[in-house]
Design a protein that fits this description.
This protein has ten helices and ten strands. It is an alpha/beta fold and 293 residues long.
Length: 293
């Protein structure tokens, strides 16, 4: 009784794909053994008695070992993907650093520059339905959408030719799901991958379902230089602010700087002193005033 419970507990801990790979490896090895049994049994003397058994055992060992170590990759070649086991509160553990790329991240274009820096350790997986959505946007009658789609296709070409990251196009689809965002989340669960995006809604939906999200906008905010009150910097005032007398400029990373009393310096570069930094949902804003002469 105790032995049966112990065996049951041990079996319950073994992932499903291990069972499948072991069975496939064993069946393959036995099939090859049957084919070799007749010619091996014709060996002279006692060689013909024990050689078929020895070869069969050896092939079973090799077949099971190869399938356990490389079974996941071999199944994936035929379009069969086993889900990774989650850890903690249902979170999916990224497998081999692979990342599924969303349409918005491709159109955004910054992923091409990020991949060149080497911060992405694995490969980028682009589902066929994402490519189809890009082509649909590029063929749109609306000029803005058409330009966005064409930019996305150009960025994809750049990723494939110039980046040091492997780009894989997968034909896998989720037939019972229609929306692209839902397909991406479902596919990320199947592959055990993170999703690369800058879509806020997809970010929230994926996180609620335990899928890790790599948000390009969050990365951009994280690597912006820290600015503290009292620091001095040069900024070019390019437009008026909302309040009277304000001027507005931008840093190289796109951060808005509101300069009190900067309206009279529009189209000029001036030195300013930072007074406060405000972090909002839309990003970071810096308030400053012109440096006293």
């Amino acid at each position: 009784m105790f032995a049966s419970r112990w065996v049951s507990r041990r079996l319950a801990r073994i992932p499903t794909y291990v069972f499948v790979t072991v069975i496939v490896g064993l069946v393959t090895a036995l099939f090859i053994s049957v084919l070799l049994a007749l010619p091996l049994s014709m060996l002279p003397g006692r060689w013909g008695d024990f050689t078929p058994l020895a070869v069969s055992l050896f092939l079973c060992f090799i077949g099971i070992s190869v399938m356990v170590m490389r079974g996941r990759e071999l199944f994936r070649m035929f379009g069969i993907v086993f889900p990774e086991r989650g850890t903690g509160a249902g979170r999916i553990v990224p497998h081999n650093g692979q990342v599924i790329v969303d349409t918005s991240a491709i159109i955004d274009g910054r992923i091409a520059d990020i991949s060149e820096t080497g911060f992405i350790p694995g490969s980028l997986i682009i589902p066929r339905f994402v490519l189809d959505e890009l082509h649909h946007i590029a063929d749109s009658y609306d000029a803005v959408r058409r330009n966005r789609g064409r930019r996305g296709l150009e960025m994809l070409t750049k990723l494939q030719k110039e980046s040091g990251v492997s780009v894989e196009i997968t034909e896998m689809d989720v037939k019972d799901v229609r929306e692209v965002d839902s397909k991406l989340v479902k596919l990320a669960k199947i592959f055990g991958c993170a999703i690369l995006t800058n879509d806020f809604n997809l970010n929230r939906v994926a996180e609620l379902q335990g899928v890790q999200v790599l948000n390009v906008n969050e990365l951009a905010n994280a690597v912006r230089p820290v600015v503290l009150p009292g620091e001095e910097m040069a900024v070019r005032i390019i437009q008026e602010g909302k309040e009277f007398g304000q001027g507005v400029g931008f840093l190289d990373d796109g951060t808005m700087i509101v300069v009190e009393g900067g309206r009279r310096y529009i189209n000029s570069s001036i030195d300013v002193v930072v007074t406060r930094v405000l972090q909002t949902a839309a990003g970071r804003m810096i308030f400053a005033h012109p440096k006293a002469e």
